[in-house]
Amino acid sequence: MSTTTTIGTARDKLDALWTRGRDFLGTELAVMGGAMTWVSDAGLVAAISNGGGFGVLACGAMTPEMLAQEIDATRALTAKPFGVNLITMHPQLDTLAAVCLDHGVHHVVLAGGLPPAPVIKQLKDGGAKVVCFAPALVLAKKLVRMGVDALVIEGMEAGGHIGPVATSVLAQEILPEIRDVPVFVAGGIGRGEAIVAYLELGAAGVQLGTRFVCATESRAHPNFKRAFIRASARDAMPSAQLDSRFPVIPVRALQNEGTRRFMDFQREVVERFNRGEVEQKDAQLEIEHFWAGALRRAVIDGDVENGSLMAGQSVGMVTREQPTADILAELVAQAEDALAGRYGHAKDSRTQEAGPALALAGAAG
Ligand SMILES: Cc1cc2nc3c(=O)[nH]c(=O)nc-3n(C[C@H](O)[C@H](O)[C@H](O)COP(=O)(O)O)c2cc1C
Question: Quick check: keyword Oxidoreductase in the entry (predicted)?
Answer without folding.
Answer: yes
